[in-house]
Specification:
The chain is mainly alpha-helical. The chain is built from six helices and two strands. The two termini are about 40 Å apart.
Amino acid sequence: MVNVTIGTPTPADVTDTASRASVIKAWVSLIARLILGGALLYAGALKIGDLQQSVIAVQAYQLPLPSGLVTLLGYSLPIIEILLGVIIVAGLLTRWSGLAGGLFMVVFIAGIISVWVRGLAIDCGCFTPGGMLTDNQKTAYLQTILRDIGLLACAVWVVLFPASRWALDDWLRTSPDKET
């Protein structure tokens, strides 16, 4: 049955509307959390088995960094992606982990734009081994940037609306120890 209000809404109507909006936001936040965290978790899991290839992927960006730092990034990035992905999916420190995920996306977008502008032909290493491309392989910079912008949008949503379904944050807030 549909409730139709004609005229000025009553306080109950406003409460119902606000309640429905908060329920919808919580579900959208869950979906955004799962997409962002799942992407980070998946990307890290694909690379964790071959950390040397992860180093090669970072080297392909030809960043003006000391080789030791490039190696450290190559080895640590998959581990950080997995940890951050798990934290986001779990809904732990949701606003802060969403912010960290968003910052990762900004860095990834900047990195892809950088290699595109410099005319390098690389595979970003996001969901693939990564590295330099051969002459017969094509870059996918625009698609990669658009995908990462979508993930950044998920991160922004999670930062703005961190309350979501099935989040550890909610469980921790309502645990028996917190009620005293």
